[in-house]
Each structure stands twice: as structure tokens, then as C-alpha cells.
Design a protein that fits this description.
Structural class: alpha+beta
Number of domains: 3
Bound molecules: adenosine-5'-triphosphate, magnesium ion
Oligomer: single chain
Largest sheet: 9 strands, mixed
Shape: globular
Number of helices: 16
CATH topology of the largest domain: BirA Bifunctional Protein, domain 2
CATH class of the largest domain: Alpha Beta
Helix content: 25-40%
Strand content: 25-35%
Length: 598
């Protein structure tokens, strides 16, 4: 491709709308343009990258025995009502764009395709003889993200590869799951990315296992905890560890102490001269269910520990039947104005004990009249501990469960694992931390959707069974940008060769010199003929501008028909290292072929 004929516009300055390096660079180098919030045009260079990533994904999916198809993006509401997700997706969480056609029928734009594929499986899969099956597609997805940001990292319209597997039983599901795991590793290796597969939260869906594939980068939105020995890695949302041992309590008897200005653990420990590990703190949450009911939750945990809201949410979903039997839609620490809606009098914030009276809750419609009381295992284990006195300015010390204070009925594990904690599999290993960009998620779904939609098959014994499902996603457009986030320098992007839009760029430093032009034209022709994807910078621009642009757009090899042409040589510059060498013109094709094969 000749740059003179391409839609090629680069910017010298960082665009104001971009925060992270990869987003800035893709905008500056003319790969993408923002059309609306979270909506981007993939310009010609970007589209080539996306097609390369898609092709690598496609090859590895096919090699793992999956079959490509293409499902509709417009999805009838009925399907989502059957699975029970219409309300949550369009209203509660609101991630799905919903619309009405002229006949008044409701439709959603596909954020994901479990419903559609399960409906097809219900229709077409009859017998165990048709199993296992794994179907995938590469397609634009729509999600009305509340905070679209970082360009293609979190768009409202983005490209995803999603695969769905159907098997007869859990053992067969695990085989496909393992194959998908290996395929994802190969995809990331081929794309030239440093990554880690981590245990992930399976959320409300349950299922027996899920892993995320994280591309390691500082700008990643996810925190990964792992051990040096390579045996453990998990998203912090899911991670487990051994908490540090509590210090023995310095309090021997139950007493009420004056603790002015001690509404934080740090201040309290200073006033009482004790360790945070001797304190039971109680945090208040408001859980809102989709029938409009709010349940106020008191969770007690050891003072040095933090509540992991993802784990807490999962516990609340598990307790759903006891609580409301409805879907949990939000969980938050209620602020002052939220509290005035239900609190009968000001709460003793910072001094709350696990037994705070239910009479703090007014009789209001839609508010559950009793606190749901949970206690984390770290707090259960304490003796002679410190806790609030339900009165501003006072704490109790030397408190013991059951003797002085009823132990909340629900004991849960909701603590956040922290850097430096001992690992569960080997207490000699300490958790380390890294930031990652989630580019893939593989999931053992089980029978949630097949049961909801009635997708069954007949087994060898002639019995009807729900299909056992798995689902496997890769964010194709997110992966492409993550590659930039992992590989750039002050001059611009450094594409891994496998997903670079072009392998080489030929630059004519002086377009007025016929010898330079002729040599470049011949090179351009020969490289293309040899299958090396090449750009020719034949624009009427200064040499300096051309070199800057070539660095910015990140093409792996730059060829310059400059001064050494007199000796029958051209300059070859490796983008990643800026290393340059003079190579005889006739050796250029074979040299580059060698580099690219590497
Ligand atoms: P996240 O936690 O980042 O919101 P998710 O868990 O909702 O993602 P999945 O439903 O597992 O995402 O989708 C599969 C893959 O699609 C993700 O691993 C990610 O790479 C990609 N993806 C999800 N949402 C977006 C988005 N808004 N923009 C770009 N890629 C996305
Ligand atoms: Mg995910």
C-alpha cells in the first residue's frame, strides 16, 4: 500500500480525550477515531490488526475442534425472559441496549449469546451421538457500559470471539474447557503477549470453574495475586490466602471504654494501644434486589482486613432465598443521604457493633425491617476482642462471642486477600501482585441456560438430560489495544510482528531523487511479491516526518533507500530496538523473510 493513497493522518500532540498510552498512541497514529462515547471507527491500519488477531483466534479455535458460525446480533426479548436475564440486563444492570420494532416487539442488541445458542441447541441437538459440540463466532458485541473508557479497552461496541460448548456430562465439559485453556495460551503466545491465566470469580452464575487470561500491564483494570512458584494466580476478586495471625489480646475483662474521635481503626488502635487484629469492625451495606426491596447488611470482620465486595455479593446471592428469593442488583455502602431514607435515628458510625439494634431501621415500605448479620471467619476466631459499643465515643474491650455478644448466624469468607499474605497451597509462599487487562474468560457454565430454556438431549440409557455447557470469550479489539499497552516507547507503537498491520515500510527520504524512487519502487514490488506486507512512504514529505511517522505507527521493519544506495545497499532499521544495518539490495527480501519467520 502506498501511503500517498491511504487515509493516513497522524497527530503530533496527545489527544486530550485519552488517558493511557495505548489509547493515545492508537489515536495519534491514526488507527482509530472516536465517533461517540465508547464508539470507535477502526481505520484501515487498525482493521488489518484486528483481522490478524481474528485469524490467529480462528486458527486456534479450529485446531481445538470448534466450528465457526455467525449468530444474530438482534435478539428477541422472549429468549432473555426465558433465561430470566431480560430485566437484569436491560434495567437492573442495564448493560443491554434494548429497542422496539415497529410492531412493538422488544429486541436487545447482543452483549453475549448464551440465550441464542442454547435455543439453537434445544432445536437441533437430540442425542448424545451429536455431542460434544463447540461453536464460536467473531462478531461485534454491544454493551451499554456505565464507564466506557480507554478507547477499545472498554467500548460500548467491540469485537469479541465467543464460543459455547455442549457436552453430555461434566467430565466431557472439562475436556473441552482444558482444550480452550490451551488454545487461549497459544493465541496469546502467537500474538507475542506476556500473560497469566488466573482463577476468576464465577459470579452469580455459579458453575464449577472459570479462569481469566490477563495481559500484564500497569494500566490494567484488574489486580492479579500470584505466587513466585507459579502454582497460584487469581484475580483479587476471587483470590484466597491465609490471613496473618492475630496478636494475642491485651484485654482480659469486658469493659466499656471511652474512645473519643475513634471512628477509624487506625485512630481507635492508637487510643486503645492495641493491634487492629484485636478489633472486630462492623461494616454496613445496602443490598438492593430486583423487586425493589433493600436489605441492610452488617458484616463483621477483623480490623486489619477488608471486605471483598465480589465475595460478599456472591454470599448474598447464595442467601438470596432466605433474603428475598430475588435477584441482587446492587450492593453499596449507604452514604448519609441514603441512610436518612430508612434510619430511625443517626447511626453510631465508626462505633457499630455486630448486635446493632434492628430498631435503627424505620418501618418503611421496601426496606427489610431487620439487619442481615454476617461474620467473616477472621472475626469468629478472636477472643477478648475490641468492638464498638453502638454509642458514639465508646467501645467495648475484652469481648467474647456468645458470652457477651451473639455470634451472627451466617459465617462467611469475604475477606480480601492481600499482597504479602501467605498462600493457602504453601504457607512459605507469599502473594505477589501485578496488574492485568482481562482479554479472555473461560467458564464452565453447567446447566443454568440449558435448564432455563429446556435444551436437553437423550443419553445412552434413553433418559432426557440437560446439556452441559461452557462458554469462552476473547476480547479481540481489547487484545489488539492491550498489545500496544504492553509494547511501545517514547516514539510510538512497537507491534509484535504477528499482528502488525504491515511487516515493513519502505521510505524514500528524498522523493526528488530518481535513483531513490526507482530503488524503493523495485523493493516495494519485490517484497510484496515475496509475501511480505509492505507500505511505501511515497508522500511528498520531509525525511524526518516520514521517519517519525514510521516509528509512531510501529511497523516492525523500516527500509530506507538513502545514502548507501551508491554502494548498492539500503538501511534496515528494527523498530523495537532502533538497530540499523546496511544490507545489499538483493539480500533485503531474504533477510526480512528470515526476521519475520523468527
Ligand atoms: P469486564 O470484567 O472487563 O467488564 P466481562 O467479564 O464483562 O469484562 P466477558 O463477558 O467475560 O467480559 O467478555 C469476554 C471478553 O470480552 C472479556 O474478557 C474482554 O476481553 C472482552 N470485553 C468485555 N467487555 C468489553 C468492552 N466493553 N470492551 C471491549 N472488550 C470487552
Ligand atoms: Mg469476564
Amino acid at each position: 500500500m502506498r501511503l500517498s493513497q491511504m487515509l493516513f493522518v497522524t497527530l503530533r500532540e496527545d489527544p486530550a480525550e485519552a488517558e493511557i498510552p495505548s489509547h493515545k498512541l492508537l489515536l495519534r497514529a491514526g488507527y482509530i477515531r472516536r465517533v461517540g462515547s465508547g464508539i470507535y471507527a477502526y481505520l484501515p491500519l487498525m482493521w488489518r490488526v484486528l483481522q490478524k488477531v481474528s485469524q490467529i483466534v480462528r486458527e486456534e479455535m479450529n485446531a481445538a475442534g470448534a466450528q465457526e458460525c455467525l449468530l444474530p446480533q438482534m435478539q428477541p426479548a422472549e429468549l432473555w425472559r426465558e433465561s430470566g436475564r431480560w430485566e437484569t440486563y436491560t434495567q437492573a444492570e442495564g448493560i443491554m441496549f434494548a429497542l422496539q420494532d415497529r410492531q412493538g416487539r422488544e429486541l436487545g442488541l447482543g452483549p453475549t449469546h448464551e440465550e441464542v445458542i442454547t435455543e439453537i441447541a434445544k432445536d437441533m441437538i437430540r442425542s448424545y451421538r451429536q455431542l460434544p459440540l463447540n461453536l464460536y463466532q467473531i462478531q461485534t458485541k454491544f454493551r451499554d457500559e456505565i464507564r466506557p473508557r480507554f478507547g477499545l479497552m472498554r467500548g460500548r461496541e467491540f469485537i469479541m470471539k465467543d464460543a459455547y460448548s455442549f457436552s453430555a456430562d461434566e467430565a466431557d465439559l472439562k475436556i473441552i474447557y482444558a482444550k480452550m485453556h490451551d488454545a487461549y495460551c497459544k493465541i496469546l503466545q502467537r500474538c507475542g503477549l506476556a500473560y497469566r491465566a488466573v482463577d476468576a470469580d464465577s459470579g452469580a452464575i455459579g458453575g464449577s470453574g472459570s479462569q481469566e487470561f490477563m495481559v500484564l500491564a500497569e494500566a490494567g483494570e484488574d489486580q492479579v495475586l500470584y505466587t513466585e512458584d507459579g502454582h497460584y494466580a487469581a484475580n483479587v476478586e476471587k483470590a484466597v490466602s491465609l490471613p496473618p495471625d492475630p496478636e494475642p489480646s491485651t484485654f482480659k475483662t469486658l469493659e466499656k471504654r471511652k474512645t473519643p474521635d475513634s471512628n477509624t481503626i487506625a485512630k481507635l488502635c492508637e487510643v486503645l494501644q492495641c493491634s487492629p487484629t484485636q478489633v472486630v469492625k462492623t461494616v454496613l451495606y445496602a443490598a438492593v434486589y430486583d423487586n425493589g426491596t433493600t436489605v441492610l447488611v452488617l458484616i463483621s470482620i477483623r480490623g486489619d482486613q477488608d471486605v471483598n465486595e465480589v465475595k460478599l455479593q456472591n454470599e448474598l446471592v447464595k442467601l438470596g432465598d432466605r433474603v428475598q428469593g430475588k435477584t441482587l442488583i446492587s450492593l453499596a455502602v449507604p452514604d448519609g443521604s441514603a441512610q436518612t431514607k430508612w434510619a430511625s435515628r443517626p447511626l453510631p458510625l465508626g462505633y457499630i457493633a455486630p448486635d446493632l439494634g434492628d430498631d435503627y431501621i424505620q418501618k418503611v415500605k421496601g426496606i427489610c425491617s431487620q439487619f442481615l448479620r454476617l461474620v467473616d471467619q477472621t472475626a469468629v476466631d478472636l477472643k477478648n476482642f475490641v468492638t464498638g459499643a453502638n454509642e458514639v465515643g465508646y467501645h467495648h474491650v475484652g469481648v467474647n462471642w456468645q458470652k457477651d455478644l451473639a455470634l451472627p448466624e451466617q459465617i462467611v469468607d469475604v475477606r480480601t486477600a492481600q499482597v504479602g499474605d501467605r498462600a493457602v497451597h504453601d504457607p512459605n509462599q507469599r502473594l505477589q501482585t501485578a496488574r492485568g487487562i482481562e482479554i479472555g474468560h473461560i467458564f464452565q457454565l453447567g446447566t443454568k441456560y440449558s435448564q432455563a430454556l429446556g435444551a436437553t438431549y437423550t443419553n445412552e440409557a434413553g433418559q432426557e438430560q440437560p446439556l452441559m455447557m461452557g462458554c469462552y470469550g476473547v476480547g479481540v479489539s481489547r487484545l489488539a489495544q492491550a498489545a500496544v499497552e504492553q509494547s511501545y516507547d517514547k516514539d510510538g507503537i512497537i507491534w509484535p510482528v504477528a499482528i502488525a498491520p504491515y511487516h515493513a515500510i519502505v521510505i524514500i527520504p528524498n522523493g526528488k531523487d530518481p535513483a531513490q524512487v526507482a530503488a524503493a519502487e523495485t523493493l516495494y514490488h519485490d517484497l510484496k511479491a515475496a509475501g511480505i506486507e509492505t507500505l511505501l512512504d511515497d508522500r511528498d514529505e520531509r525525511a524526518g516526518v516520514k521517519f517519525k511517522d514510521a516509528d509512531l505507527i510501529g511497523i516492525p521493519y523500516r527500509l530506507v533507500t538513502g545514502k548507501s544506495l551508491k554502494e548498492g545497499k539500503v538501511e534496515v532499521v528494527v523498530r523495537a530496538t532502533h538497530e540499523s544495518e546496511q544490507i545489499p539490495i538483493e539480500a533485503v527480501v531474504s533477510t526480512l523473510q528470515g526476521y519475520i519467520r523468527q
